[in-house]
Amino acid sequence: MKEVVLTGIRRMSMQETEIPAITRDTDVLIKIKAIGICGSDVHYYTTGRIGSQVVKYPFRVGHEGSGIITATGAGVTGLQKGDRVAIDPAMPCYQCEQCRAGRTHTCRHLKFLGCPGQARGLMAEYITMPAASCYKVPDTLNFDQAVLSEPLSIGTYAVKYVDNLPQRKCAVLGLGPIGLSVMHCLLAANTKRIYGTDKIQARLDFAGSQGIHWCANPQQTDIVKDITKAEPAQVDAVFECCGDQEALDQAVEILKPGGKLLLIGIPRTERISFIIDKLRRKEICVQNIRRQNECVTDALTLLTEKKDIDRMITHHFQLDSSAAGFELVAEYADGVVKAMLHL
């Protein structure tokens, strides 16, 4: 089969390898049909690392995917050959104290697709996965829409940390695929008012077309001044989705006392900082969001209800053009929001 691997900084190549065999009774073999290019994949492509996770070349990335089951292990139930599935890239052990406490996303022995030292990614024609990480795709969804269940499940999980959303005013800083996923989940929950920011006009245009109440470019607008003018009491929650220090500072400024800051974006730097005087005096609650926890089914349901979510997919590439897709996303070129690879 064909696979695409990273071979160095901003370098990748296609090569031939064996179709993987099912070695555990609880695994399935999947023929991959679509793969989303995620910002974290691009981090590995452009820098070779995310924090302590350093790529050892050659390495295969990719963790947003969908496909068709072509074989199942003897112990698999609920799935069969021919089923179309969305893939949850997380593979928890289900045995550690975190898993037993219902926190499979922080499993002590978690393996995650496309993470160095954990598991090779999806950028191949076939892959084996635990059946527990595969979700049947409703007949009304296509493979691209199924891929979006991965980022959308993160938005679904993040939004659960803010209660009584019909009475809440929230901001989403960074309207890339994760920020837009958060936005869609907030809209679905009938959030009273949603403010959004991004530096790319195409993303602002898309967010505006989807019903966000207000959005602007922080390079052209005084975000803090304008949002505070619109909301003198300031906002209840900020979802920081770009990992940018400037956005973190803006978040603290626009949050009301007792507000909640949810950190979702992955910073390119190893450290971020806060002006502790402002954070402390407002008694801001800072909540990190680690991927998602049992939200894939909810995300698939939302995709069936709001099929226009897939409008965030702006570019398509074949697997042998993966490098072009990664370069496009890395440079935020051509108004890209979400780029997809197809097999």
Tell me the CATH architecture of the largest domain. Answer: Alpha-Beta Complex
Q: What is the number of E strands?
A: 19
Look at the structure and give the CATH class of the largest domain.
Alpha Beta
Main β-sheet description:
7 strands, mixed
Unreliable residue runs: none
Q: What's the oligomerization state?
A: single chain
CATH superfamily of the largest domain: Medium-chain alcohol dehydrogenases, catalytic domain
What share of the residues lie within helices?
25-40%
Fraction of residues in β-strands: 25-35%
CATH topology of the largest domain: Quinone Oxidoreductase, Chain A, domain 1
**Mean pLDDT, all residues:** 96
Shape: globular
Classification by helices and strands: alpha/beta
Tell me the radius of gyration. 20 Å
Number of helices: 11
Secondary-structure element series? EEEHEEEEEHEEEHHEHEHEHEHEHEHEHE
Query: How many structural domains?
Result: 2
Distance between the termini: 11 Å
Model description:
It is a single chain. With 343 residues, the chain is an alpha/beta fold. It has helices spanning 39-47, 97-100, 143-147, 149-159, 177-188, 201-210, 223-230, 245-254, 276-281, 296-305, 322-330, and strands at residues 2-8, 11-16, 27-36, 49-50, 53-54, 64-72, 84-87, 90-91, 111-112, 126-130, 134-136, 169-173, 193-197, 214-216, 235-240, 255-263, 285-288, 313-318, 338-342. It has two domains: 2-150 and 307-342, Medium-chain alcohol dehydrogenases, catalytic domain (Quinone Oxidoreductase, Chain A, domain 1), CATH 3.90.180.10; 162-288, Rossmann fold (3-Layer(aba) Sandwich), CATH 3.40.50. Strands 3, 6, 7, 10, 11, 18 and 19 form a seven-stranded mixed β-sheet that branches. Helix 1 (39-47) packs across helix 11 and helix 4 (149-159) crosses helix 5 (177-188).
